[in-house]
């Protein structure tokens, strides 16, 4: 139980040797045998092996394929680490995400080296024949890694459609690149805010004066000002948000401290508010794309459409600084739009709320009608091809057909399903689902089953 507590709460192993903790344990049970950090380490490793064996057994019984996420990370000591995460739907149709490895990755860290390292990790878990896709960032080494990895995994067992959908670029990372390009042309008013926050946070005496200004101005600001990190755009958004909440206090601080050279004019405050409001939707969408407890592929088209709309509105904004930011972000947006995998379009087809209508609507706002039809046809053909791949796969979990005969195309095959469930039945299905939800909630309240 001590080992489980250490692993669950991320305690240091040395906690078992703390004097006061040992005194408390001896008080609770005088016959207790105290252990050293080396002993508790062995217990932690045994528990780790037990959990690892349990996860390996679950993965071995898995009927579906597995999608992987690979990420390279450098600690403050410049030591490199590699994380491998598995995403899959278990045999009970529950979405699961499991960290498989967090390993030290020594140099060199070229694409070929990363590929060999990842292949070894996948084989260690016995998943080399169940791979569907690999999601990673847009670093050049990762592109090389994906090409080499696809070739190696294809030799173990053919990937779906020869690995056509193997490489999926990280939506959150691309969104970060888009916003970072806009932050490079940020307005001088935002730089002035950054200087004001650094000035106040750089001295305890100035912090005390600022706290007094917050109390005297009676503003709704609670907490502290945030210092942003230039490499993380969302920290700049959070800094602006906190500064706007403390606007009255900052104005009062500027009248008290004569050395404060970062007093903003009314026009500059308006620009700061415009920039903050412009960045807020991107922060919300980033959080949605980064979620791990719910499916995110079906969010792709609606929110990409929302991003495109925000950039177009910003491009036509009355404030020049917003126009400059949106223009720089539009260039990056157009660069990465064509790089997305069409497998995310297939996810929209499988979502009964969207299906083909959403794809046509989203693409129609970005391309001319001829290009829209070509891309819709491409997604449709890929969907049918992928369905047929799973339908004929030896590992398919679908029940066998009688007499080994294939279903007629006149029945409920993939082609008829694809056509029938399109407009206008998409909206009819959503309407029926909404009505049934309201009816269910009504009877729940009527019969008093709310707490059951």
Radius of gyration, in Å, reads 28 Å
Order of strands across the biggest sheet? 3-2-1-4-5
Q: What is the residue-mean pLDDT, rounded to a whole number?
A: 81
- Multimeric status of the protein: single chain
The termini sit apart by 33 Å
Domain module tally: 4
- Major sheet: 5 strands, mixed
Morphology = flat
- Share of β-strand residues: 5-15%
The helix fraction, in percent, is: 55-70%
Structural class computed from helices and strand pairing:
alpha/beta
Number of helices: 18
The poorly predicted ranges are 396-452
SSE series: HHHEEEHEHEHHHHHHHHHHHHH
DSSP E strands, number: 5
Describe the structure concisely for a colleague.
This protein has 452 residues and is α/β, with parallel strands linked by helices.
What is this structure's SSE topology?
Elements: H1 2-9, H2 19-28, H3 37-60, E1 66-74, E2 80-89, E3 95-104, H4 111-124, E4 131-136, H5 140-156, E5 167-169, H6 171-183, H7 188-201, H8 204-217, H9 233-245, H10 247-256, H11 266-289, H12 300-315, H13 320-337, H14 343-349, H15 355-364, H16 369-392, H17 414-420, H18 425-447
Parallel strand pairs: 1-4, 4-5
Antiparallel strand pairs: 1-2, 2-3
Give a verbal description of the structure:
The chain is an alpha/beta fold. The protein has 4 domains: 2-56, no CATH class; 62-169, 2-Layer Sandwich (Nucleotidyltransferase, domain 5), CATH 3.30.420; 180-340, no CATH class; 342-393 and 410-452, no CATH class. It has 18 helices and 5 strands. A 5-stranded mixed β-sheet has the order 3-2-1-4-5. Helix 12 (300-315) runs antiparallel to helix 13 and helix 14 (343-349) packs across helix 15 (355-364). The radius of gyration is 28 Å and the shape is flat. The two termini are 33 Å apart. Mean pLDDT is 81; it is low at 396-452.
């Amino acid at each position: 139980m001590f080992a489980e507590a250490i692993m669950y709460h991320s305690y240091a192993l040395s906690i078992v040797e703390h004097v006061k903790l040992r005194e408390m344990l001896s008080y609770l049970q005088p016959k207790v045998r105290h252990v050293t950090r080396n002993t508790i380490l062995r217990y932690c490793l045994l528990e780790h092996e037990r959990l690892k064996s349990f996860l390996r057994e679950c993965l071995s019984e898995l009927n579906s394929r597995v999608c992987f996420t690979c990420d390279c990370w450098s600690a403050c000591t410049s030591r490199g680490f590699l994380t491998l995460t598995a995403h899959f739907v278990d045999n009970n149709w529950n979405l699961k995400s499991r960290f498989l490895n967090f390993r030290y990755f020594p140099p060199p860290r070229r694409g070929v080296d990363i590929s060999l390292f990842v292949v070894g990790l996948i084989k260690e878990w016995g998943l080399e024949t169940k791979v569907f896709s690999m999601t990673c960032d847009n670093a050049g080494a990762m592109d090389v890694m994906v090409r080499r990895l696809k070739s190696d995994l294809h030799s173990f067992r053919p990937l779906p459609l020869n690995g056509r959908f193997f490489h999926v670029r990280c939506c959150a990372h691309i969104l970060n690149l888009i916003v970072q390009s806009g932050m490079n042309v940020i307005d001088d008013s935002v730089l002035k805010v950054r200087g004001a926050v650094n000035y106040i946070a750089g001295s305890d005496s100035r912090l005390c004066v600022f706290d007094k200004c917050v109390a005297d101005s009676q503003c709704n600001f609670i907490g502290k000002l945030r210092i942003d990190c230039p490499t993380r755009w969302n920290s700049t958004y959070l800094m602006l948000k906190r500064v706007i909440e403390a606007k009255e206090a900052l104005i009062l601080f500027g009248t008290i401290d004569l050395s404060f050279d970062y007093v903003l004019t009314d026009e500059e405050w308006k620009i700061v508010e415009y920039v903050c409001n412009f960045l807020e939707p991107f922060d919300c969408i980033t959080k949605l794309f980064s979620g791990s407890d719910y499916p995110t592929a079906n969010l792709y088209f609606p929110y990409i459409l929302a991003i495109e709309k925000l950039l177009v509105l910003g491009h036509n904004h009355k404030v020049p600084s917003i126009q400059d930011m949106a223009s720089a972000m539009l260039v990056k947006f157009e660069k990465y739009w064509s790089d997305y995998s069409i497998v995310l379009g297939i996810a929209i087809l499988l979502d009964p709320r969207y299906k083909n209508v959403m794809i046509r609507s989203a693409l129609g706002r970005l391309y001319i009608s001829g290009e829209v039809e070509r891309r819709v046809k491409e997604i449709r053909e890929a969907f049918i091809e992928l369905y047929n791949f799973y339908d004929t796969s030896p590992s398919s979990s679908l029940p066998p057909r009688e007499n080994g005969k294939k279903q007629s195309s006149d029945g409920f095959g993939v082609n008829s399903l694809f056509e029938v469930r399109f407009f206008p039945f998409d909206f009819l299905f959503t309407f029926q689902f909404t009505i049934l939800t309201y009816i269910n909630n009504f009877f729940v309240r009527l019969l008093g089953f709310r707490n059951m």
